[in-house]
């Protein structure tokens, strides 16, 4: 495009020599008019052509408008409780600082939930939330996700709690009790599983497994339902041992 502009400027500065014979124009009025008319017609043709070229040079080529892609609908905002297990507020004292902001860690942990939850798991009915997700429970200073599955006597609720290891974790403990219902299982990879089973009400029980992991993450999986439909300690241990449920990725 720049080369073409330079050529047009050069043609304007140095016009070609005229081939019109002025003496013959003076001696022949008729021939002069004929030649003049022809010359004017030629000049108009040149101007028209140059004007068209100039328009082509100066008019930018605009790409065809791209088809607009509608934005993906934003997920439904979920409201979560903040009282936490036991309802008492506490201050977290991790043995080493957390590397992520709470919202970033919650999104990453939520992405790991799908393969860990049973088929048909869903948020609490009536919660207004369309997905099971982790959130930072400020009151309990823990990342929490809650899911439900089944109905009636087969209904089971599942709570997954993820928090950073603290100095008090030097001695492994069960989540619900420290009595004979509490069982310790030493696993490979320097992991310890603490499990217990305690009655709740109306024939339902609470089973929990807390896994003490060497990645400075403590994961508790708690289920509540009738004993016949509760997941086993082994199943809960597999969930708690997921490498994706870490606070130090």
Structural notes for this entry:
This protein is an alpha+beta fold and 249 residues long. It has a domain at 102-241: 3-Layer(aba) Sandwich (Protein Transport Mog1p, Chain A), CATH 3.40.1000. Helices cover 27% and strands 22% of the residues. The chain contains 5 helices and 7 strands. The chain has a 7-stranded antiparallel β-sheet with strand order 1-2-3-7-6-5-4. The longest helix is centred in the first third of the chain and has 30 residues, at 29-58. The model is unreliable at 1-62 (pLDDT under 50). The chain crosses the membrane at residues 37-57. Residues 1-22, 62-96 are annotated as: Disordered. Keywords: Membrane, Transmembrane, Transmembrane helix.
Number of DSSP helices?
Answer: 5
What multimeric state do the chains show? single chain
Mean pLDDT: 76
Q: Into which percent range does the helicity of residues fall?
A: 25-40%
Q: Rg to the nearest angstrom?
A: 40 Å
How do the strands and helices of this protein lay out in sequence?
Blueprint: H1 2-13, H2 22-27, H3 29-58, H4 102-111, E1 135-137, E2 142-149, E3 156-164, E4 183-187, E5 191-201, E6 204-212, E7 217-225, H5 233-240
Antiparallel strand pairs: 1-2, 2-3, 3-7, 4-5, 5-6, 6-7
Transmembrane segments: 37-57
Region (Disordered): 1-22, 62-96
Keywords: Membrane, Transmembrane, Transmembrane helix
